[in-house]
From TrEMBL:
The keyword Hydrolase applies. Residues 389-416, 441-468, 658-692 form a coiled coil. Keywords: Coiled coil, Exonuclease, Hydrolase, Nuclease. This is Nuclease SbcCD subunit C. One of its GO terms (biological process) is double-strand break repair.
Length: 1008
């Protein structure tokens, strides 16, 4: 799509008619929409969108598109001439708006929104004409979307690139990003397909569950009717429980129950007499086996205990000897522990004394304690002397700081003095210039009342002149009507009088016609009328005369009304003529326009008077301030130089004294720190030597005490006593073990000598499990056979019809299972609940993720150039942490920093980097959406703001990419107020703010 011409009238901030020639602007492929904030740069793009789609970007109402600066009688209208899909089209739109109307009650009528679409027939070179295509909103919308291949939202995203929105898109979470992509690519159909599959799956499942529920109820009835058939078959029956997934197994299960029920009926009849005798015999056998087993167990346990006791007795002599030595050594535990403890302390004291002496200088490494004490006292004396000199060192530092401050103050005062002196030299010329300007503006302000009165008089005269001409036309019409009404009244009067005369002439005949024989005459009273006057032919009736008289009266009244109206209009016309004179309306309008222009110019100049006066007062105040600053700076310079000389002399004196005291150290504190460390090292060495002597004495005392205690306890040495030591708990354990062995030995010997146990041990082992199992089987058989024939017959009778019903129902189950398996698998794959869907992404999310990956690839071709190959946008399939939802996976965006090789969140980009990434993302989305929607190339793009965040190098990189966009006859319009872009882009459309609305001006090439 290529834009050619745009005409705007009374639209947005544009009160007048404005025109944009995009052919002229796009000559170099790149042009700039430039203007102050609020001037109306974006309104030009709004006009393009309104012309094509009847609405503006966003959700603003169309009835607010009309300019507040436009006159009430000027209609809002936008016309756009553009080419797309090989066609040249022109569209004209007007929004719904009000306009002045003399017929409306409130003086204003409402015009509905209109649209007209024309197509150029012929060629531009050979001539042609615009031919109408359609003139209603629905047909126009279909034509525009067909020729552009873009919906309104897609157009706003790919042609009018909104940088602020794409910065939000760049940093948005997956939910917000999915909403925009879904609208742009129209992927709601995939969500509808996913919902349709889920609905079909649920319906198939419900049908299958309904049949399966019926089968379950029927199988439960079969299971209930079957009951326990044969004990050995119950496990197999429950192992093949009815399942709708396995109809063959279910049918086999039911048929098997019926077969076994029939077999059970036969078996029950044979086993009914046998079960009671078997039960009694099994019960007696079990009791005998339990008695034999108890005696055999007692004897076996005794034999095992005897063997265990004999095995333990082998180590008892050695154990008794160790117990005796441990008991004698127990009182020596404390003296022996004291020897180990003091030996360890003596070793630690020796190590500490060695470490302490290594910190001393070579002269004191092997010195005795008195020499170390003397050296320690000398260090403390020297420390006291140096601490007394610390204030002098601090004073020297303070003098350095004061001298540096004086130098800074002197430099600052010199700068203030020079700056004030330079400004005061230019003050006389500045004062004269502002004084002359204020005088000129004051004269203009004085003329405002006179010009206001002139405008008021001309406005009143123009209104009177318009009224005069209107009344003149009405007076002519009234005079014509008065003459017409006068003629009509005379004709009606003549008609009435003529009819009256004719009736009077034939009155005798009229009276005679009313006479009858025997009726008295109203004139003479005679009842005989021998000779009646004849009634003339064509004589008018009384009703005709009355109608003529009524018509005459109405005509007279109409004439009187016309006469009064004409008289009133004549009076009003005379008054208006006296007020307006004979000057024409056109001349008065010209004079009024000139007077208003002069008044507006005077008001504009007067409006600047206060600012000029305030500025002059500010300059005079600044003059006084500058004069005072220059004198104060001069005084401060003299003071700083005098004080600097005195402090420098004091600094030299203190420095000599401190240099002698410091020696080789950098500062007095460093020298004092050295002496303190030496004193501390000497003190540590003294303490370590004293501790070592005390530790040696304590260790020797402990050794002597331990040797004496060992001899008294019967041990040759203290080392023998230490070897005999055992834990107290172990000694108690050995004594208890020996005592318990003696007790157990007596009990086992008594048990093994009992005769009854010896006889039981000689017999074979008793089989308790076999006896118990025989008893259980006999008891179960007894219970089963009690009334079993009657139960088995009833079971066969109940199962036969139920199995037949189950067979019929299972035949209807297979088709339902196949349908549900297919629909459920497709639905789970689309809804990301099936393991086959390895990405765990729903259908719509998968489509959107693919689109986002294409957008990132398209964006990176430009982002690399804009960032010198540093940044790349990376599409991520991972789900967002802490979020759940159908569209969360696969819609992540991260930034790869190729300089460090790390992936970063988009929120970590700076303002300029965010703009660059957003611009690349917007251009990439434009390419993908265009290819998806129609595949038609976009000849014109607009980029709205954001360049102010770029430094010079980034701006150059972005401009290089924008230059590449111009390939293939594509033009790019940048909307910005950044001054640097104004210097870089020669072709410009400038938008300026004015009192009567904004205006547009083309600046092309040499006009800069």
């Amino acid at each position: 799509m290529h834009l050619h011409h745009l005409n705007i009238q009374a639209f947005g901030p544009f009160g007048n008619s404005e025109s944009v020639d995009f052919n002229d602007l796009s000559g170099a492929g790149l042009f700039l929409l430039r203007g102050d904030t609020g001037a109306g740069k974006t309104s030009v793009l709004d006009a393009v969108c309104f012309a094509l789609y009847g609405t503006v970007p966003g959700v603003r109402p169309t009835h607010r598109l009309r300019s507040d600066h436009a006159p009430v009688d000027r209609r809002t209208k936008v016309t756009l001439d553009f080419s797309a899909a090989g066609r040249r089209l022109k569209i004209t739109r007007t929004p719904k708006q009000s306009y002045p109307s003399s017929r409306a009650k409130n003086g204003f009528a409402t015009a509905e929104a209109t649209v007209q679409l024309h197509e150029w027939a012929g060629t531009l070179d050979a001539g042609g004409d615009w031919e109408p295509v359609c003139a209603n909103h629905q047909d126009t919308a279909r034509e525009i979307e067909a020729v552009l291949g873009l919906s309104k939202e897609q157009f706003c995203q790919v042609v009018l690139l909104p940088q602020g929105d794409f910065a939000k898109f760049l940093r948005a979470d997956a939910k917000d990003r999915a909403g925009l992509l879904s609208r742009l690519f129209g992927t709601s159909r995939f969500q509808e397909l996913q919902g349709w599959l889920a609905k079909r799956s649920r319906a198939a499942k419900e049908d299958l569950e309904q049949v399966a529920t019926g089968l379950l109820h029927l199988s439960e009835r079969i299971d209930q009717a079957a009951g326990p058939i044969l004990p050995e078959d119950s496990g197999a029956r429950h192992a093949t429980r009815p399942d709708a997934e396995q109809p063959a197994a279910t049918l086999a299960w039911a048929q098997g129950l019926l077969d076994r029920a029939q077999e059970a009926h036969t078996v029950a009849l044979a086993e009914e007499d046998h079960s009671d005798g078997a039960y009694q015999k099994a019960k007696q056998d079990q009791q005998a086996a339990m008695d034999l087993a108890d005696r055999q167990t007692q004897y076996t346990d005794a034999l095992q205990q005897r063997a265990a006791l004999d095995e333990q007795a082998g180590g008892h002599p050695r154990l008794r000897e160790q117990l005796d030595h441990g008991t004698r050594a127990e009182p020596l535990r404390i003296p022996l522990d004291a020897v180990e403890r003091t030996a360890h302390a003596h070793q630690e004291a020796q190590a500490a004394e060695t470490v302490a002496r290594t910190a001393l200088d070579a002269a004191h490494t092997h010195a005795g304690t008195p020499q170390l004490q003397l050296a320690h006292d000398q260090r403390h004396t020297e420390i006291g002397r140096l601490q007394g000199l610390l204030p002098q060192e601090e004073r020297l530092t303070e003098l350095d700081r004061q001298l540096a401050d004086l130098k800074d103050k002197e430099a600052q005062a010199q700068g203030v003095h020079d700056d004030a002196d330079q400004w005061l030299q230019t003050w006389p010329a500045t004062q004269a210039e502002h004084t002359a300007l204020i005088e000129a503006l004051s004269k203009a302000a004085d003329r405002i009342p006179q010009l206001e009165e002139q405008v008021k008089d001309l406005d009143a005269t123009l209104a009177a002149a318009r009224n005069r001409d209107t009344l003149a036309e009405r007076l002519d019409q009234a005079q014509t009507l008065q003459s017409q009404r006068h003629a009509e009244a005379l004709a009606a009067k003549k008609t009435w009088l003529d009819l009256r005369e004719l009736r009077l002439n034939g009155m005798a005949g009229e009276l005679a016609a009313e006479l009858a024989d025997g009726t008295p005459c109203t004139v003479c009273g005679s009842t005989v009328h021998p000779s009646k006057a004849p009634l003339p032919a064509g004589r008018p009736t009384r009703e005709a005369e009355e109608e003529a008289r009524t018509a005459h009266e109405e005509a007279e009244a109409a004439h009187a009304d016309a006469t009064r109206s004409g008289s009133d209009l004549a009076t009003q016309h005379a008054e208006a003529l006296g007020a307006a004179g004979t000057t024409s309306i056109a001349s008065l309008e010209t004079e009024l326009e000139a007077a208003r222009a002069a008044h507006q110019a005077a008001c504009d100049q007067a409006g600047r008077l206060g600012t000029a006066q305030q500025h002059l007062a500010t300059l005079r105040t600044e003059c006084d301030t500058r004069t005072q600053q220059r004198q104060e700076a001069k005084d401060l310079l003299v003071e700083c130089r005098t004080r600097h000389t005195a402090l420098a002399q004091q600094q030299r004196t203190i420095a000599l004294t401190l240099a002698d005291a410091r020696g080789t150290a950098t500062t007095l504190k460093d020298r004092i720190s050295e002496l303190v460390r030496e004193a501390e090292n000497l003190s540590h060495a003294i303490d370590a030597a004293q501790l070592l002597a005390a530790a040696a004495d304590r260790h020797q005392d402990a050794v002597n005490a331990a040797d004496q205690a060992a001899h008294q306890a019967g041990f040759p040495t203290r080392q023998d006593a230490a070897a005999a030591l055992r834990p107290t708990s172990l000694l108690r354990q050995w004594a208890e073990e020996l005592k318990q062995w003696d007790h157990d030995d007596a009990i086992v010997t008594n048990t093994l000598n009992r005769s009854g146990l010896i006889e039981a041990h000689a017999q074979p082992p008793a089989d308790l499990l076999a006896a118990a199992d025989t008893l259980r089987q006999a008891e179960a058989q007894l219970k089963t056979t009690a009334g079993a024939p009657q139960q088995a017959h009833k079971r066969v009778t109940d199962l036969t019809p139920l199995v037949a019903d189950l067979t019929a129902r299972l035949a209807d189950l297979a088709p339902l299972q196949a349908r549900y398996a297919l629909t459920d698998r497709l639905a789970r794959i689309a809804c990301a609940t099936d393991t086959t869907n390895t990405l765990s992404m729903e259908l719509e999310a998968y489509v959107l993720a693919a689109r986002l990956e294409e957008i990132a690839e398209a964006a990176n071709t430009r982002l690399q150039a804009m960032t010198s190959d540093r940044y790349l946008l990376v599409h991520s399939d991972e789900k967002e942490a802490g979020r759940r939802g159908r569209l969360k996976a696969g819609l992540g965006l991260r930034v790869l920093d190729t300089w460090t090789g790390t992936h970063r969140e988009t929120s970590t980009l700076s303002g300029g980097e965010t703009f660059t990434a957003s611009l690349a993302l917007a251009l990439g989305l434009a390419d993908v959406v265009t290819q998806e929607a129609s595949g038609r190339p976009l000849g014109t793009l607009f980029i709205d703001e954001g360049f102010g965040t770029l430094d010079e190098q980034n701006l150059q990189d972005v401009m290089d990419v924008l230059d590449q966009l111009r390939a293939g006859a594509r033009s790019v319009g940048i909307v910005s107020h950044v001054a640097e872009l104004g210097r870089r882009i020669p072709n410009q459309l400038r938008v300026t703010k004015q009192r009567n609305g904004s205006a547009l001006r083309h600046v092309v090439d040499t006009d800069l």
